[in-house]
Design goal:
This protein is an all-alpha fold and 83 residues long. It has helices at residues 8-34, 36-44, 50-74, 79-82. Helices cover 78% and strands 0% of the residues.
């Protein structure tokens, strides 16, 4: 432990995990933005079928879950709040 109370190895490890998560999340968000025009054209303006609903469910569940998980990677929560 150093004088600040933060273990350097743990800090570096957390920084690597956060960087890798952010890289993956950035690729996911970029993919959503790149294909949004095509998705609106072929999915949102088409007739709702079970396959369309499955596509939308899986696509946006993934995005929403990654946004939810990102709060745990980047927001510091006090121990007292967790209790």
């Amino acid at each position: 432990m150093d004088s600040g109370g933060v273990d350097y190895a743990r800090f570096t490890s957390n920084r690597i995990y956060r960087s890798l998560f952010l890289a993956g999340f950035s690729v996911l968000a970029y993919d959503h933005l790149l294909t949004l025009h095509t998705e609106v054209k072929y999915i949102w303006k088409s007739k709702l079928r079970p396959s369309t609903l499955w596509f939308l469910l899986l696509r946006y569940t993934c995005l929403a879950s990654n946004i939810w998980v990102s709060t745990f990677y980047f927001v510091t929560i006090d121990y007292e709040v967790c209790l």
